[in-house]
Design brief:
Elements (H helix, E strand, L loop, with lengths): L1 E2 L2 E2 L7 H42 L8 H22 L8 H5 L2 H32 L13 H4 L1 H21 L6
Helix pairs in contact: 1-2, 1-6, 2-6, 4-6
Length: about 180
C-alpha cells in the first residue's frame, strides 16, 4: 500500500523537515532584522534631529553625532539589504528565465543561489578578516574600535547565507511545507 508517495514502513526523507526548520529560523532572523532596522533608523533620526537643534538653536555642535549617524547608516544599509533579499525585493531581470521551460528555469535559479552563497561566504570570510585587522584602531570622535562599524559585513553575510540556503533548499527539494 502506498501512502503519500511512500511505502508503509518506509522512512520519509528528513529534508522537508529540515527545510521547515530553516524557514522558521530565516523568518525569525528576518523579523529581528526588521526590528533592528526600526531601532537603528529611529536612533539615527533622533541623533540627526538633536544635532540640528544643537547646531542651529544652541549654536553648539555635537562632535560625535556625525560619526555615529554615518555608522548607523552603514548598519541600516547592510541589514536592510538582508531584509530586501529575504523578501526577494532586489532588482532582478527574470523575464527571460520565466519564459524558459520549468526544468531549465529551476536549474538557473539553483545556479544563481549557489553563486549568491559563494559571494556571501566571501563577505563572511573577508569581512571578518578586515574587522579583526582594524580592531585596535579607534574612531576619531567616539573612540570606539573601528571593527564595530565593519562587523556588520560578516554579520550581514551570515544572515544572507541563512536566507540563501533556505532559498536553495526551496528550489532543490521544493517547498512542500507551506
Amino acid at each position: 500500500m502506498i501512502e503519500s508517495g511512500y511505502r508503509s514502513g518506509e522512512k520519509k526523507p528528513v529534508y522537508p523537515e529540515m527545510l521547515k526548520i530553516l524557514q522558521k529560523i530565516s523568518s525569525a532572523i528576518n523579523r529581528g532584522s526588521e526590528w533592528s532596522l526600526f531601532a537603528l533608523g529611529f536612533s539615527m533620526a533622533l541623533i540627526t534631529a538633536t544635532q540640528v537643534f544643537c547646531r542651529y538653536v544652541l549654536n553648539h555642535s555635537l562632535f560625535w553625532s556625525e560619526e555615529l549617524g554615518r555608522m548607523l547608516l552603514v548598519w541600516i544599509s547592510f541589514i536592510g539589504a538582508t531584509v530586501a533579499y529575504k523578501r526577494k525585493a532586489h532588482i532582478g531581470i527574470d523575464f527571460l528565465v520565466q519564459r524558459l521551460p520549468d526544468k531549465i528555469s529551476r536549474n538557473i535559479k539553483i545556479a544563481t543561489n549557489l553563486a549568491s552563497l559563494f559571494f556571501f561566504s566571501i563577505m563572511i570570510i573577508y569581512g571578518s578578516k578586515f574587522a579583526l585587522l582594524i580592531k585596535l584602531q579607534k574612531t576619531p570622535a567616539l573612540g570606539l574600535a573601528k571593527s564595530i562599524p565593519f562587523a556588520v559585513i560578516p554579520l550581514s553575510g551570515v544572515i544572507f547565507m541563512i536566507h540563501g540556503i533556505t532559498f536553495l533548499l526551496e528550489c532543490t527539494i521544493g517547498d512542500k511545507s507551506r
